[in-house]
Amino acid sequence: MEPISIPSQSVPVLTSVDVCVAGGSCTGVFAAIRAAQAGCSVAIIEAQNRFGGTAAASQVSIWHSLFAMDNHTRIIGGLTQEVIDRLGKRNAITLETKPNPSIYAILNTEELAIELDEMVLENHITPFLHSRVVNVWRDDDGRVAGVIVAGKGGLFAIKARAFVDATGDADLCAAAGLALWRNQEVQPPTACAKFSAWPQFKEGIGTLIHNAAARYNLPEGMVWGAFSPAKNTYMLAGTKIPELDLSDGVSLTVAEIEGRRQLRAIQDLVADAGYPRPILEALPSLIGIRDTKHIQALYRVTTDDILYGREFPDVIGRGTYRVDVHSQNPPGSRFLYLDGREVFISPHKKNESGHWRDPALPTPPFYQIPLRSMIPAGVDNIITAGRMIDAESGAFGALRVMVNLNQCGEAAGTVAAMAVAQDKPIPDIQYRVDLP
Ligand SMILES: Cc1cc2nc3c(=O)[nH]c(=O)nc-3n(C[C@H](O)[C@H](O)[C@H](O)COP(=O)(O)OP(=O)(O)OC[C@H]3O[C@@H](n4cnc5c(N)ncnc54)[C@H](O)[C@@H]3O)c2cc1C
After folding, report:
1. What is the structure's pLDDT at 185?
2. Over the chain (436 residues), what is each successive 10-residue block's mean pLDDT?
3. Which of 330, 355, 362 shows the shortest CA–CA distance to 340?
4. Out of the domains of life, which is the source (predicted)?
5. Which atom belonging to ligand 1 lies closest to the Cα atom of 386?
6. What is the pLDDT of residue 254?
């Protein structure tokens, strides 16, 4: 249809701060906390009713290893460890006792949301929930000087000197007209859900779904899940919506409804297979989104940078989580480990194992995340943190997990605060993070 024009309007400015963070998963909250701790006034804007993003709104409950490939040398600390400690005091987390490449901690994601509320308030950050950044406001010099936010009462503005885009989809960068790109094959979104009375399956839920996939119109792919720390609910990540980029509202609507249809179909097929019907206890308030748009940054991380543990002068984070790319064809997930192993996991078949490189070659202790991969080109007061990172598909498959993006959040907040304090463009800020 023909576009319509809307008249220009005045909107109230609700606050003016040093640093404004758009998006409030742990990534965004950690950015806000670090900026506040550096002495900045900070506002954070989150579209959902709670902080925590994919963990709290989409129920994804697993954090991966904080250690190097020797399983001993700590590479991640900071606010990630602080949240683990805080949840530990409330019995809201379980930690794996043995080295495990798939799990380090299982979080009670409801408790996480409350913990993040407390951390935001303790650090005197001004929160805006149920609020979505929809545009930017530019000053007379054309510089991004504020964001336009759609809230419950209508549009409002927040002025700031520096911005952190932690929206996952790079909404703030898109509004600022910055260049974005997307992978040819976008990793599929998944509606996770929590169930009680989750049966003990003889054949595995992946096999059950595979056997009934055609009958229930279920796309195939990776299926996994985890019991909550109290073991009373099971979070299943078993649905998928192939080939949809959920960075626009129409696709998001289609995917939310289709995700819930698939959840009911899984309950039905479990019951049809002769097991007690699992009881649906909680739906996500936002479908889990793996991959949408990426920024064009000062540096694009390559898959080799990750797999060979390339060192960067502007390292701001480290990780060991394997390259993990979900695919529909063939259905499953391909894991490439830093020690040279390659494993393809299918929902219903034996794992296929091999090596992507000669295993006799040395294993890097970890990979590094360069600050430049978070700084969009073409603007001087916006930094990003999160899954919009500029990384090739394989590199993104490793970097996208929360313990990595948490570090990006902390670095983004620190760098935004440094840019404000030094009155310098973000790309000119020199910053690196040493091992904790
Ligand atoms: C099903 C699934 C399973 C996964 N499994 C794991 C796992 O086991 N372990 C792991 O570590 N990682 C896992 N991941 C990956 C990981 O969860 C995500 O890559 C990561 O959480 C992304 O973090 P983020 O902060 O970039 O974005 P998000 O978590 O998407 O957070 C973005 C936040 O910004 C808000 N927002 C968006 N747009 C706006 C706007 N315009 N204005 C204001 N707010 C906005 C959103 O509401 C959200 O709270 C999984 C992902 C999925 C989908």
Report:
1. 87
2. 92 98 98 99 98 98 98 97 98 95 95 98 98 97 96 97 98 98 92 97 94 95 92 95 90 97 98 97 97 97 98 98 89 94 90 95 97 97 98 97 98 98 98 96
3. 355
4. Bacteria
5. 26
6. 96
pLDDT of residue 165: 99
pLDDT of residue 243: 83
Instruction: Report pLDDT for 82.
Output: 98
Which among 20, 21, 25 is the best mutation to test ligand 1's pocket, defined by most ligand atoms within 8 Å of the CB? 25
Q: Is 429 a pocket residue for ligand 1 (Cβ < 6 Å)?
A: no
CB of 127 within 6 A of ligand 1: the answer is no
- How distant, in Å, are the alpha carbons of 103, 310, 371, 421 from that of 322? 12, 15, 20, 37
400 Cβ below 6 A of ligand 1: yes
Q: How far is the CA of 247 from the centre of ligand 1 (A)?
A: 12
CA of 384 to the centre of ligand 1 (A): 14
Residue in the structure block whose two tokens are 């640093």? 19
Minimum-distance ligand 1 atom for the alpha carbon of 28: 25
Is residue 166 in contact with ligand 1, taking CB distance under 6 Å? yes
